[in-house]
């Protein structure tokens, strides 16, 4: 988790009391500062949009400027969404720790009765009735941040996707029935028609009006457009269950992880079957780890049992890594081939000064575009080969022939 406040020794700057107040403020304001910088950057770019000198029609220029501004707005929203997604667990943890107090003498948690209560995250913050910094600043400020981060970020994600629901989860026509008199129109659902579901996914990729939402919807089937919100809520809960005191901490963490594991297993929300299987395995590892913690803490399991259980978990983790490698085999092979191709091209341009460097940049952009096309059209095992991929395969074979000709010319030189 990102914690820039760890770079600042607040405990050394304020060794006596209430050092956590500075950490709370810094951790909840730096995301806002990043977002403001992102907005400022894109607004500045919009002021310096240049027209294409080849276009002389003023109306066409105005349309192109509007298109570029819209694209910048979408890029800005996409980057802000990524920032909020990354900082959510850390900032939520910092906010919730404001109410996580520790009675150092093992007595009552009531600060009116016990004078030995401190913040668990910072023992320079003495929780007493006369600590004005804690009660008059930290608690109200943390309450505001609670609405802004743990509640506000998932709510913002929901509003962004829900406002474009007709395009995120559209109704499409059956391609096979389009030639007939009657055509059925429905939403893409895997349980009804997997081909139609992937047609919706393809349509979403081609729709530039929801390009800024790809980070929130790209991994999930159209039916589960809201799943990123559930994922955010789960991350907040699992990261802050520790504020419940006593022996219930581990048990509540285990129950939370177990419930989410079964939800992921039952609904299988991801577009690709391999992603569903990987999510199932990784969440199972989390549940098994918490279960092992319960066995060690409450049942006093012997050491040999711990070693065996840990070995099983290690085997499962290795299996998950193998699943990832198998699932990304096509992409890794493609990237390796393109890396070799670009390296040979670069050596060729270095040896031949008459060629322009811009040619290499153009070829690199073409490689990136081809990779994104291959990745966006990857489907599950049952739909592993589509007409688009066959077309890409023919194009790649032609490129390999061109590459062989280039290598032959280099050899002749």
Taken as a percent bin, the fraction of beta residues is under 5%
Poorly predicted runs of 5 or more residues: 177-184, 379-391, 406-413
Note the overall shape.
globular
Radius of gyration from the CA trace?
Answer: 28 Å
User: Span between N and C termini?
Assistant: 53 Å
Query: What string gives the helices and strands in order?
Result: HHHEEEHHEEHHHHHHHHH
Helix content: 55-70%
Q: What is the average of the pLDDT values?
A: 76
What features would you describe in this structure?
The structure is a single chain. With 413 residues, this protein is mainly alpha-helical. Among the domains are: 168 residues, no CATH class; 84 residues. The chain is built from 14 helices and five strands. The strands form two sheets. The chain has a three-stranded antiparallel sheet with strand order 1-2-3, with no helix packed on it. Helix 10 runs antiparallel to helix 11 and helix 12 packs antiparallel against helix 13.
List keywords for this structure.
disordered C terminus, 413 residues, single chain, globular, mainly alpha, 4% strand
Question: Quick gist of this model?
Answer:
The protein is mainly α and 413 residues long. The protein is 67% helix and 4% strand.
Secondary structure layout:
Blueprint: H1 10-13, H2 20-47, H3 58-96, E1 101-103, E2 117-119, E3 122-126, H4 132-162, H5 165-168, E4 171-173, E5 185-187, H6 194-206, H7 214-217, H8 227-240, H9 248-267, H10 273-299, H11 303-327, H12 329-351, H13 358-376, H14 387-412
Antiparallel strand pairs: 1-2, 2-3, 4-5
Helix pairs in contact: 2-3, 2-4, 3-4, 3-8, 4-8, 9-10, 10-11, 12-13
